[in-house]
């Protein structure tokens, strides 16, 4: 992303300010004797910008008819003389596990953790990493974002999971979920430039945990939210490394989108994600079909 060096330095500084405050808060809680969990998943509340009455997730499956026991034929009553008491499928051993390869879901894998017979299937190391997939491969990134999408319930217009800054509890007390308050936006001039492809970018100083992204589509076109949703899921998966050595290196929340005057606005908590996440966000906004991209503090652009 061809941002001016000064703008990239600003991104690193804004991120470092928030991470330093978060680490100081964690250290103070631990010193006071609290049990602290940094950046926990939460049940995302319904986003106020979502359509009124729109479903926020699949309804819970409560009640309903009980499922038949594994191996039982639901078409035959238990007292059917053709079905001896306790009879199971003769192809299944005691305990209900189907011994046929591929049965019970088609995997053909034993349940005791041993490798599948014949050497088939994915080869994984002790930490669960597929040995055939390098850590930085497209397949590995796809696996990471798929795993992230499954973890918590999803809320908001983009149906994304969410995190908080930290969860902590004193001995014998109920746990507390906490987000650090965001100070006023830092001072400094806005940066404006033209991106490859013709999109205009405006970057205003913002706090890492409280930002907004304003997107104006090209005339006669609608925004495609899939690139932004992929960006969010990829950067919600932990990626500790040189760029984010202190915490999990993840964004926490994406709210919206909500309508503005000719634009759509997302609210962002970039959490402990590295500065490269903001650069990738701008690229995702371009891929979404935005003609004008503005990243800065909430309330920086008029809303309708």
Please tell me about this protein's structure.
The protein has helices at 5-31, 138-150, 226-236, 275-287, and strands spanning 35-38, 41-42, 162-163, 166-169, 176-178, 191-194, 200-203, 211-217, 253-259, 264-269, 290-296. By secondary structure, the protein is α+β, with helices and mostly antiparallel strands. The protein has a domain at 5-43 and 180-296. The strands form three sheets. The protein has a six-stranded mixed beta sheet, covered by helices on one side. It has a three-stranded antiparallel beta sheet with strand order 1-4-5, with helices on one face. It has a two-stranded antiparallel ribbon with strand order 2-3. A hairpin with a 4-residue loop joins strand 9 and strand 10. Helix 2 (138-150) crosses helix 3 and helix 3 (226-236) runs antiparallel to helix 4. The longest helix has 27 residues, at 5-31. It is globular. The two termini are 31 Å apart. The relative contact order is 0.18. Residues 44-74, 92-137 and 140-151 have low confidence and may be disordered.
